[in-house]
């Protein structure tokens, strides 16, 4: 972070979006957006001033007056257009995402596509934002509900999915009639801004979608602003807990999707080849930088003999810049992230886990300055070790042995987090018992990363989530709307208060 100087002028600046205009911030505080494979400075992002954040909220407040009255079909058609624009610009969006975030181009396309699915869901808002009617609940009395927008809503999004997670938020909020202020990650805001350009091109009116940039001060400003009615957050447990408590104190609705320590259970009857391939992809895809990654696998009974084959498969993964063909793992987001992961690997060794595969300091010709850590596997991991207790957010897989399914389930249920879990088995009875008795919000059966499609809501639980309603799906309609209940009784002109059943059509 630094004050911008004349020497910086050849590097593009990331703009703010306020009231339909992309504007240059007047701040003196800037942060570099760095390509994690090369350390090239791609752009500079402003840490917006309090006045700029207030202006964004004011624009959203003003736009809400007319946007909330816009017919539901007109709102939905904007998102039909946006999903088409995203499809047409997929290659550009993926390339921008890979440059600033580091994930492979196929992973980047997946990032955009999973957000695109929510945009398509927003286009169906007419089927989702329906109230209820009870006819004649008393003599001549009807009761019905309206799902009305809240007002100005805000979103705070993380670095690891800079396309998908903003698209989890603003399309559903705006489609339901709210206006929005988005604060993307300051580490990789460029693809988010391109998506916002496309959103304006699709027809989102001035002030309905606004973007500010910044760090802790910007987060606190959004939590504290009295005009903001609801906040959505995805990110670390530490920051999410802070956001939830600070924003709740001002009466806001808050949903926080936070950290995780996801476990998979492998029973010895599982299909070995399919299971090992699934584990490798889930543990090391996106370099482990996802809240639904698979950092812990519990091998039950004879499945504990599969460790050498798992290690052999992990050795074949290719570490390289995300732009290079056939790359399996790109770099971590920053040098600080790489140093943190390497330090946790050191702690794993020091605390007695067996290092089966060491991914530190991989050779990546042409990208010697990249933030690379290769696939790393520990066996003999136990609760209490740092590599088990802490969310590593890197390509590090911990293997634990268990004698029975009950022992494995007890371990998972004792962990405070509840984002996702999975079981690999060919036994329907075992799978059913697992799904019933496991205390985790999202369960995969022979599916390693059980993130639901947008027809359903993201349902992480326990320490992985604060707030009772998840992003997208039916739950988010309730989050972004206020249920208003109307009880109505109509009288004829001639009635003196009793019910007149004679209807005159004069």
TrEMBL record:
InterPro entries: Ald_DH/histidinol_DH (IPR016161), Ald_DH_C (IPR016163), Ald_DH_N (IPR016162), Aldehyde_DH_dom (IPR015590), MeMal-semiAld_DH (IPR010061). Coiled coil: none annotated. GO terms for molecular function: methylmalonate-semialdehyde dehydrogenase (acylating, NAD) activity. Keywords: NAD, Oxidoreductase. GO terms for biological process: L-valine catabolic process; thymine catabolic process. Gene3D superfamilies: Aldehyde Dehydrogenase, Chain A, domain 1 (3.40.605.10), Aldehyde Dehydrogenase, Chain A, domain 2 (3.40.309.10). Its EC number is 1.2.1.27. Residues 23-486 form the Aldehyde dehydrogenase domain. NCBIfam families: MMSDH (TIGR01722). Belongs to the aldehyde dehydrogenase family. This is methylmalonate-semialdehyde dehydrogenase (CoA acylating). It comes from Lampropedia cohaerens.
